[in-house]
Amino acid sequence: MRLYKLLNKHHLTTKKAVKAALKQGLVSIDGQVVTNPQLNVDPQIQDIQLNGKKLEDSSQVYYILHKPKGYVTAVSDSKLPTVFDLLRPEDRRVGLYHIGRLDASTEGLLLLTNNGPLSLRLLHPDHHVPKTYLVEVNARLDWRAIDRFSQGIRFRDGSKCKPALLTLLEDRPGYTRAQVTLSEGKFHQVKKMFLAVGAKVIYLKRLRFGPFTLDETLLPGQYRPLSSQELVALKPFLD
Fold first, then answer.
1. Which CATH superfamily includes the segment(s) 130-209?
2. Boundaries of every domain in the chain
3. pLDDT per position in the chain (239 positions), as tens?
4. Which of 103, 171, 215, 239 is catalytic?
5. Which of 11, 52, 137, 186 has its CA 20 to 30 A from that of 171?
6. Which family does this protein fall into (predicted)?
7. How far apart are CA 60 and CA 45, in angstroms?
8. Pairing mode, if any, of strands 107-113 and 62-67?
């Protein structure tokens, strides 16, 4: 949430009161005095104090979900169930949204939050947040595919994606299992990259997103709140 909204919740209910507190140096975040009321903040992640008193607020939520196949990454859909249908009623919030998308046929790590500004920062190209996928394709790949991925695949429409790291885990005639790590998230990018080297994706699972790794104790369709250690990993993406 924006800093001024947090201060509003703690008795500074007018713009004038918020402005005065900031101007007087009464507000600090992690020990540093701040003056910008528009900062995106979260007391669950940061030590935010007003006149020496620590502010508390737990209205912002962060979930890590093991998305199963057959669910769309959307708030609503007319044909298929959505990832939000997997949430218990008590865990749903106004403004809860997914960070990035996974196709209905793709499974794996998906983050959900109602912290909109943080979600945008995690997805912004300037931050180059890496994403790692486990992939199975219907062709045997070799060093040539690794080389093309490392240089950045150019598609038929002339567009080119950024270099990606391809690691072959298993290969045999008509089949390869691999991991691929990329720093952007264009529409159907992983599938298009493999098609460009003559292979069709037959299985796709996201294992990592930035500092977060899929919790393998979560079965497909299960989720949990981020741990305190995982919450700390979000700090660089707050203002």
1. Alpha-L RNA-binding motif (3.30.70.1560)
2. 3-54, 62-126+215-237, 130-209
3. 999 999 999 989 899 999 999 999 999 999 999 999 999 999 999 999 999 999 999 999 999 999 999 999 999 888 999 999 999 999 998 899 999 899 999 999 999 999 988 888 888 877 779 999 999 999 999 999 999 999 999 888 888 999 999 999 999 999 999 999 998 877 789 999 999 999 999 999 999 999 999 998 999 999 999 999 999 999 988 87
4. 103
5. 186
6. Belongs to the pseudouridine synthase RsuA family.
7. 10
8. antiparallel
